[in-house]
Amino acid sequence: MMDNVSVITMFTLSGLNGTANYRVTLFVLTLLCYFVIWLVNLTIIVTIIVDKSLHEPMYIFLCNLCISGLYGTAGFYPKFLIDLLSPTHVISYAGCLLQGFVLHSAACADFSILALMAYDRYVAICQPLVYHSVMTTPRVCVFVFFTWLVPFYLLFMSTITTSNSRLCGSHIPKIYCVNWLISNLACSASLAKIIIPAFNYTFYFGHFMIVVWSYVYLIKKCLRSKENRSKFMQTCVPHLVSLIVVVVCLLFDLLYMRFGSKQLSQSVQNFMAIVFLLIPPILNPLIYGFKLTQIRNRIQNFICGKR
């Protein structure tokens, strides 16, 4: 009998079979959303790179958050747009693993960057006298490097584990691939399948606790000073809103994927599947673009043709 791993070379994706009547409309709307995602994120990225006065830790981290948004959405939208115009919705085995890796690593990178931004705001407001000695350029570069390296490494290990599983099915009940759904097709459970995801979830829950701890101290500090309250409202509120948006959207998707009812209409299921690929990549740059005065002014000056 042949090994199932060598037999399964393609996966079928579900969710688009009932969209034939409005597939073109959906394609146009999706393409528009993807264009807006690129426009708002690229605007923030280019503004921060070009303007040397924005080469500060907070803006460097924001630039990386926008890059993560573009990286993650690139793992979904091009393939989804092709599927909308195709009568068959399939993805290769390697393509499915790659898509799962990109989507997972982007989500983890978001968490790492947001935790780093929380730490940056904690030092800036609670320990302003040592801020520049703590957040030096070399140290910021190291922070950013590990912010990307760690998610890539953890998800690479998770993807390798998934790829080594013998599969007894080829149907992914979603409009895109994620490692958890691929591993559910395994013929038998493995210890690594349980341990590695458990470690990853625990590791990023630790990131969340770092953010909570930072904001507890920030709020205590800001209640004592009018100047700190102003600084908190200016720089921390956008970060806090971004964090809430990312956490809510990711939890929404994770909890629905594991415990959600399959009795909902396919359209509702599809919307739930793309919430974290639609809302955070658009809202995050808009929130920072409108709220952070320096970025808003630079963008306005550029649009008006002022130097």
Automatic annotation (TrEMBL):
<keyword id="KW-0472">Membrane</keyword>
<feature type="transmembrane region" description="Helical">
    <location>
        <begin position="97"/>
        <end position="119"/>
    </location>
</feature>
<feature type="domain" description="G-protein coupled receptors family 1 profile">
    <location>
        <begin position="40"/>
        <end position="288"/>
    </location>
</feature>
<feature type="transmembrane region" description="Helical">
    <location>
        <begin position="58"/>
        <end position="77"/>
    </location>
</feature>
<dbReference type="InterPro" id="IPR000276">
    <property type="entry name" value="GPCR_Rhodpsn"/>
</dbReference>
<dbReference type="GO" id="GO:0005886">
    <property type="term" value="C:plasma membrane"/>
</dbReference>
<dbReference type="GO" id="GO:0005549">
    <property type="term" value="F:odorant binding"/>
</dbReference>
<keyword id="KW-0552">Olfaction</keyword>
<feature type="transmembrane region" description="Helical">
    <location>
        <begin position="271"/>
        <end position="290"/>
    </location>
</feature>
<dbReference type="Pfam" id="PF13853">
    <property type="entry name" value="7tm_4"/>
</dbReference>
<feature type="transmembrane region" description="Helical">
    <location>
        <begin position="201"/>
        <end position="219"/>
    </location>
</feature>
<keyword id="KW-0716">Sensory transduction</keyword>
<keyword id="KW-0325">Glycoprotein</keyword>
<feature type="transmembrane region" description="Helical">
    <location>
        <begin position="240"/>
        <end position="259"/>
    </location>
</feature>
<keyword id="KW-0675">Receptor</keyword>
<protein>
    <submittedName>
        <fullName>Olfactory receptor 4Q2-like</fullName>
    </submittedName>
</protein>
<dbReference type="InterPro" id="IPR017452">
    <property type="entry name" value="GPCR_Rhodpsn_7TM"/>
</dbReference>
<keyword id="KW-1015">Disulfide bond</keyword>
<feature type="transmembrane region" description="Helical">
    <location>
        <begin position="140"/>
        <end position="160"/>
    </location>
</feature>
<keyword id="KW-0807">Transducer</keyword>
<dbReference type="InterPro" id="IPR052921">
    <property type="entry name" value="GPCR1_Superfamily_Member"/>
</dbReference>
<dbReference type="InterPro" id="IPR000725">
    <property type="entry name" value="Olfact_rcpt"/>
</dbReference>
<keyword id="KW-0297">G-protein coupled receptor</keyword>
<keyword id="KW-0812">Transmembrane</keyword>
<dbReference type="GO" id="GO:0004930">
    <property type="term" value="F:G protein-coupled receptor activity"/>
</dbReference>
<keyword id="KW-1133">Transmembrane helix</keyword>
<dbReference type="GO" id="GO:0004984">
    <property type="term" value="F:olfactory receptor activity"/>
</dbReference>
<feature type="transmembrane region" description="Helical">
    <location>
        <begin position="20"/>
        <end position="46"/>
    </location>
</feature>
<keyword id="KW-1003">Cell membrane</keyword>
